[in-house]
Amino acid sequence: MDVTEIIDLLKEKADTRYHAGMLRFGIDNEKALGVKIPEVRKLAKLIQKDHELALQLWDTRIHEARILASLVADPKLVTPQLIDSWTKDFTSWDICDQTCGNLFDRTPYAIEKALEFSKHGEEFIKRAGFVLMAELAVHDKKAGDMIFIQFFPVIEREAWDKRNFVKKAISWALRQIGKRNKTLLPLAIQCAERILLQDNTTAKWIAGDALRELTSLKPSRKKGL
Fold first, then answer.
1. What 3-state DSSP class applies to 216?
2. pLDDT digits (tens, 9 = 90+) for 126-181
3. For residue 164, how many other CB atoms are within 10 A of its CB?
4. pTM of the prediction?
């Protein structure tokens, strides 16, 4: 299949009500068709990995085509330059999250980019930094604890950022790191408790959001703890 055929298939799956509803979830639907994510994933399974096609899909600027691109791109062929280029194109939290969780976190540059993006000024690029931390905690089963311990000072440092899509990603990163194993859980709780002491309402929100989940975890009930 070529790009034109794929876009036609996406258009066949478009749902006008879903398209209108995207706005309620804070998703810019100006360049969207209104295709639900499960339908995009089904199409990705048919295509499988096709890096050149992924590049072409991304260049269409169509919302769902870009999510599909993140699913069919080959992590082995992703360069730091491609990560930077695609990240600059993020216009919504879902493209950010899908691209980080489907592709970027599976590259050798994920840790480097998480740290780099976490101090960026642009909202969705900065979100990408913390989404990468969260996704690494979920997907990279072989990563050592020190990889995640290095993220705690960054999370504390940036907990002041009141922008909605940033603060939620910071909390998400902290929670996912804490849920990873029995070593990281108390360290994540301690990190959240330090954030709670910051004289900043956003920091207190992030800490409270994380602590509600992390302190409710019981080692005997949590897989892997």
1. coil
2. 999 999 999 999 999 999 999 999 999 999 999 999 999 999 999 999 999 999 99
3. 13
4. 0.93
